[in-house]
Amino acid sequence: MSGRRIGGAAGTLRFTFDGRAMLAREGDTLAAALLANGVMLVGRSFKYHRPRGIMAAGVEEPNALVTVGEGGRTEPNTRATDVYVYEGLVARSQNAWPSLRFDLGAVNGLFAKFLSAGFYYKTFFGPPSRWMVYERFIRRAAGLGKAPTLADPDRYEHRSAFCDVLVVGGGAAGVAAARAALEAGERVMLVEQDPAPHLLSRESGNPELQRQRSIPWAPAFAGARTEDFSVLTRTTASGLWDHGFATLTERLVEPGQPPAPGQPVQRLWHVRARQIVLATGAIERPLTFAGNDRPGVMLSQAVRSYIERFDVLPGQRVVIATNNDDAYATAKAVRTAGGEVVAILDSRKSRPADGDAATFTDAHVVETHGGARGLTAVVASIGGRKRRFEADLLAMSGGFTPAVHLHSQAGGTLDWREDLQAFVPGAFPQAVTSVGAAAGDIPPIATTTASLTDPKHSFVDFQNDVTAADVDLAWTEGYRSVEHLKRYTTLGMATDQGKTSNMAALARLAQTGGVTIPQAGLTTFRPPYTPLTLGTLAGADGGGHAAPARRLALWDSHQRLAPIWQPLGLWHRPRAYPVAGETLYDAAMREARAVRTTAGIVDVSTLAKFAVKGPDAAALLELVCATGISKLAIGRGRYTFMMREDGMVTDDGTVWRLGETDYLLTSSTGGADRMEAHLSYVHRILAPQLRVSVVSQQEHFAGIALAGPQAAVLLAQVTGIVPPAHMGTATAMVAGVAVLVLAASYSGERAFELYAVPQDAVLVWDALAVAVRGVGGCAYGLDAMEHLRIEKGHVVIGAEADGRTTPHDLGLAGMLRKAGGFVGAQGLSRPALHAADRLQLVGLSSTRPIPEGAMLVAAHGAAAEGHVTSAGTRVLEHGSVALALLAGGRARNGETLIATSPTRGLHAAVTVGVPLFHDPGGTRYRD
Predict the structure, then answer these.
(1) C-alpha closest to that of 327 among 365, 367, 372
(2) CA–CA gap between residue 466 and residue 516 (Å, rounded)
(3) Is the pLDDT of residue 670 over 60?
(4) Which ranges constitute the DSSP H helices of 229-340?
(5) Which among 814, 784, 755, 789 is positioned nearest to 917, based on CA atoms?
(6) Of all helices (H) and strands (E), which one includes residue 483?
(7) Residue 857 has pLDDT above 70, yes or no
């Protein structure tokens, strides 16, 4: 094939393809520009690395996948037919090594019989050692293109819009529908995937439209008010959902093209429409014959599009193969452009009344000849006799398939049209209407089929190298369902989602099985209609916007101590405060020892906090909490835990009675949102009659915990009050700031939590920091807190309470309210939750470090009986301790097991005991 410009200059836009400098005209797609520069070979197929050229002219292109852009703007697997050339565009071929023309991967073709349908499934047959060999090669070959390794520097955004009528498609039918809606006084949004409407690419069989390059937009909508009409070009309707909801992907610049400063590159629209009109046109089908994937074999309408839209003639000597009338318009276009129509091979028994003199009827393409440089000859069967035609371009037309993807996504049914050999839109469950070619206004086709002389080289899915022989093999091996066929052969699973392959494959499946195409079935159309970038889906919700890092009210105070920060939920909390070159471990141990021996302060602001107020506040809390609440005296608190309805512990914390009908409930940092939803569910669904208000106060107050043997003395020093008894409350002033004092311990030492409004919390922190340093204490972080709580046996949500453990498993059954009546009480009555071999919380001790997350086994190679949930070294003593979940654990005190982590090569002999290693009598944290 030797493409060329049809008169005029080559253009002024400079771009490169595989390092070769070329010129393009304004408005050229990359595919058109490559053809104009005589480029025949643009890529290699996925499995066999066969040479591939440009086949289509729109988003249905299966072959011409290229990588566009550089650095963080690199975009692989971009269809050359769907990117418009801009100054400086850099494009590269993909799936070839060391070069596109000389690709060593083409050797795969020699092993085609071993790489047939489902070959990768069959590699699992036999001993596992074989798979370990196969895996290296299969993983290395997987994927098309290379993902960028640099961060995307561009910005994406989302927008929402509302309209009366959304028209998808800017062809003749779409323009007519939009104009009619405007005349009826409707607010209209028109969406077109190209920069301007090109009717030829989707509207078939209309001679008047075939003579036009496009219809100007302005005359069609003259007089329309701006507020009633909007047009989005370079925009694709990527999905159609329930209740008139559509997602649109708008390209503001081309792939790889730098945007204007501060501007986004793509925009995802969320559109609600009262009515949706689908003018999405139809997709031309390829024909199936040996060598139908060679460079120089193109769709008939694509050839016509390149001629009439881009002034590019893809070849000089052209053979046209068709089963319908539309291809005859391509013959006229080729001649008008100066090309030679060598033959028109019409599979029908008679040619049209206005048929071409070069037409042969009862003619089918048998095979093609050529190579990486393009097509050289076409062999056809004419009336049962073979004939060879020398040609550099084959334009084929196997009929048309209405683009019913969005219709199906909206829940619409499909009807079979025998004259079209195609599925067309059927019933609509929503206010969705298809018009034009999308509704089946396309040329009928012949239903004759020719036998294939070489099914192994007759491709039905070009991108995934699925041949007619693969379809036959799948049938032979028992795959009757089209959905099973799809997954076994990977048919229609490439980036084009089978736009050109589905109907050819269905026809082959039906022929092989001796059934009709409707009986063979149809695969499911799923969004997006065309691929879209992950950046578009994320929009502005990337980086810090995807997971906002909430700063503590005391952020600046922490920063002065140069902490190691730890992401925790949506927060960043200090993990430790290293000094003088300390490691994280050394800093954490120093801080933990300070709490055990003198005093320390820690920021606990992120704990979930809920103000529960009202006459029925206690009643709601007794539903939510599994412990007793109603008898709690004013000014007192208690530890509590909450459960799901299935009896599993979902969170824990403390509950405090601050007034007659005023309670404060705290829970874990990471479970704040979950706890808020749970409280709302219990109140709104389970007990809507209760007169109570629940308000999340997680960010309303900053919290500081003061812990250690000197904590009570220091609290009295900075507040001037008598410290409250353990689990008591008090109010006080610290540095002129009002604080709420809660006497609760997480460390196993005497401790108090002080809560103040965030804007004044720094004054409280500074006052406590001075007092703590005065006795040799310091601030401590999460790692020190972890060491302290493990020694004391306190559970943490996510580790010990992992969503599968009950209060009985965690040793909390004695705290359950005997009268029941709380969420999860019924779930606990299930006998299986009281089985003796359930995973139960235990303590482990060892002279060696215990690997966190390790499996617990009786001997090396034995089955796992549990796992280590949390582990650390002793704070003041020697050795290591851990908390673990062990099958039947409470009955196994004194047993010796092995904590093993083979993937890390870590092992330790451990002794099972009670999960309490510090102050068993609880005397240190009490008054």
Answers:
(1) 365
(2) 21
(3) yes
(4) 300-310, 327-336
(5) 789
(6) helix 482-489
(7) yes
Name residue 241's beta-bridge partners. none
Task: Annotate 310-334 with three-state secondary structure.
Answer: HCEECCCEEEEEECCCCHHHHHHHH
pLDDT higher than 60, residue 543: yes
Residue with tokens 């470090």: 849
The whole-angstrom separation of Cα 214 and Cα 219 is 12
Q: Which two tokens stand for residue 553?
A: 């009210």
pTM higher than 0.70, yes or no? yes
Residue showing tokens 């599009």 = 305
627 token code pair? 């412990």
Alpha-carbon distance of 158 to 161, in angstroms, equals: 10
Q: Provide the token pair at 845.
A: 């001790």
Token pair of 661 as six digits:
């009908």
Strand partners, 886: 840, 866
Q: How far apart, in whole angstroms, are the C-alpha atoms of residue 240 and residue 160?
A: 15
**φ, ψ dihedrals at 853, nearest 5°:** 85, -5
Question: Would you state the structure tokens that stand for residue 468, as one six-digit string?
Answer: 């007619």
Distance CA 19, CA 36 (A): 17
Residue 887 contacts residue 857 (beta carbons within 8 Å): no
Q: How far apart, in whole angstroms, are the C-alpha atoms of residue 437 and residue 404?
A: 10
SS3 258: coil
pLDDT digits (tens, 9 = 90+) for 209-267: 333 344 455 566 666 666 788 999 999 999 999 999 999 999 999 999 999 999 999 99
Comparison of pLDDT for 714 and 630, the residue scoring more: 714
Output the six-digit token pair for 479: 């795959």
Biggest CA–CA distance in the chain, Å, is 110
Model confidence at 206, in pLDDT bands (50, 70, 90)? very low
Three-state SS at 250:
strand
Q: What is the pLDDT of residues 3-55, one digit of tens each?
A: 688 877 778 999 999 999 999 999 999 999 999 999 999 999 988 899 999 99
Per-residue pLDDT at 132: 78
Alpha helices (H) in 682-807, listed in sequence order: 711-719, 761-774, 782-792
Alpha-carbon distance of 619 to 612, in angstroms, equals 11
d(CA 189, CA 199): 18
| H helix or E strand, kind and range, residue 393 | strand 393-397
709 near 749, Cβ under 8 Å?
yes
| CB of 468 closer than 8 Å to CB of 479 | no
Q: Token pair for residue 74?
A: 């690199």
* Rounded CA separation 461/292 (Å): 11
Res 448: pLDDT: 64
Tokens 């004259």 -> residue: 419
759 is written with which tokens?
């804007």
The residues near 125 (Cβ < 8 Å, ≥ 6 apart) are none
127 — phi, psi (to 5°)? -65, 150
CB neighbour class for 339 (10 Å; exposed up to 12, middle 13-18, buried from 19): buried
Report the chain's terminal Cα–Cα distance, integer Å.
93
Whether 373 and 40 have beta carbons less than 8 Å apart is answered as: yes
